[in-house]
Amino acid sequence: MKLTTMTQITLDGVVQGNGGASEEDRRNGFERGGWAKGAGDDDTRTLIAETYQRADAFLFGRRTYELFAGGWGAVEEMRNHPVGVALNRSPKYVASTTLTDPEWSGTTVLPTDDLATALTELKAQPGGELQVHGSGTLIPWLLENGLVDEMTLIVVPVILGQGARLFPQNGPDIRLDLVESRVDSKGVTIQVLRPAGRPLYATV
């Protein structure tokens, strides 16, 4: 399986609290939640749903997993949505040192003492996509360890000025190949990118 990610992100790189509920993630005094609510047109929403539907398995960090389990895994209306159907029928893996007894059916907690090896073995299994949604702490770690094959950024045209960002101020340098790009009728940009080694720098 190839490991792919899909992330809603602001122009200044924030991924925290994108959901419809302003109280969803208030860590570190974050007060500007729900910034992605209403963003994107029908085509973008269809793209997101179709992406979930083609997954063979899902990988989460603990926080995103718990948010998804409480919604897509528990609320009947959400379970019946195409995204919910995809999530509930597919295997789910969680990278966590604290989650020991997941209640969402089909969930496996991965050992974090050697997570890179566990994920390499998981990716070696037959199948199409192992997808990561949300999981703003996990994705940078996956990128740093060379485990991401393709990433989709759904860029919402807003600057928040606060909140946790997807790419740390001091992190790995990664060159990306742009595979696909489009802008929807609401100004949301969808970019599909593949890691392609390190950037090329000018020489003196």
Question: Can you put this structure into words, describing what you see?
Answer:
The chain has 204 residues and is an alpha/beta fold. The protein has a single domain (2-195), classed as Dihydrofolate Reductase, subunit A (3-Layer(aba) Sandwich), CATH 3.40.430.10. The chain has 6 helices and 8 strands, in the order E-H-E-H-H-H-E-E-H-E-H-E-E-E. An 8-stranded mixed sheet has the order 4-3-2-5-1-6-8-7, sandwiched between helices. The N and C termini lie far apart (42 Å). The model has no long low-confidence stretch (mean pLDDT 92).
Describe the structure using short key phrases.
204 residues, alpha/beta, Dihydrofolate Reductase, subunit A, 8-stranded mixed sheet, 25% helix
Question: Mind sketching the topology for me?
Answer:
Elements: E1 2-10, H1 42-53, E2 57-61, H2 62-71, H3 76-80, H4 82-89, E3 92-95, E4 107-110, H5 115-123, E5 129-133, H6 138-144, E6 150-156, E7 176-183, E8 189-195
Parallel strand pairs: 1-5, 1-6, 2-3, 2-5, 3-4
Antiparallel strand pairs: 6-8, 7-8
For this structure, the quaternary state is single chain
Cα(first) to Cα(last) distance is 42 Å
CATH superfamily grouping:
Dihydrofolate Reductase, subunit A
N-to-C SSE string, H for helix and E for strand = EHEHHHEEHEHEEE
Q: Please tell me what the overall shape is.
A: globular
The count of domains is 1
The CATH topology name reads Dihydrofolate Reductase, subunit A
**What is the C-alpha radius of gyration, as a whole number of Å?**
17 Å
CATH architecture label name: 3-Layer(aba) Sandwich
Question: Count of DSSP E strands?
Answer: 8
- In order across it, which strands form the biggest sheet? 4-3-2-5-1-6-8-7
